[in-house]
Amino acid sequence: GAALPALATVLVSVRAEANAGPMTRALVTLLAVTGATAMAQPLKSQLETLSTKRVLFAHQSVGMNVLAGLETLAKEEGVTIAVKELKAETPLTPGLTHLFVGENEHPLGKLEHFAATLEKTPGVELAVLKLCYVDFAPDTDVTALFAAYQARHDALKTKFPSIEFVHVTAP
Questions:
Q1: HSE-CB for 153 with a 13 A CA cutoff
Q2: Do 107 and 152 touch, CB atoms closer than 8 A?
Q3: Less packed terminus of the chain by CB within 10 Å, N or C?
Q4: What is the pLDDT of residue 40?
Q5: Which residues are paired to 33 by β-bridges?
Q6: Cβ(112)–Cβ(151) under 8 Å?
Q7: Partners of residue 58 on adjacent β-strands
Q8: DSSP per position, 102-136
Q9: pTM of the predicted model, to two decimals?
Q10: What is the C-alpha to C-alpha distance for residues 25 and 30, in angstroms, rounded to an integer?
């Protein structure tokens, strides 16, 4: 498929509400930035744009909070966004398709699982890999991990030029 027209980036923001417990109510804003004025578009318009895209979201446990937050915002704005779990080798349909990727505490394994999933999942327009805070320990060689992350994403961008890759920081 063709690359998303003029899509510059997608920003993902997650905040836990004060007094709601750790990530029990995640507020998610997914902004499809298509130009200089897109950031000023109302949330409802941004969610409507997102609902038409084929998004693959690879995550572990905290990712469920992101999905819950997205569903809450969409409901509050009166927008329907299909959220479903990935089925083996099934082409994506518009909406957000998610999968549990790799194992926590093994970020390189998550990168490899993400890449392998893209190989066998047709129709992806936006691809998101969210690592988790538990993937980083005091003894993690952050420089080596970041280099591996960059190399894997560069290879994926070359192999899948029509996919927009979204970079997400760990919570």
A1: 15
A2: no
A3: N
A4: 59
A5: 9
A6: no
A7: 99, 129
A8: S-TT-HHHHHHHHHHHHHT-TT-SEEEE---GGG-
A9: 0.80
A10: 16
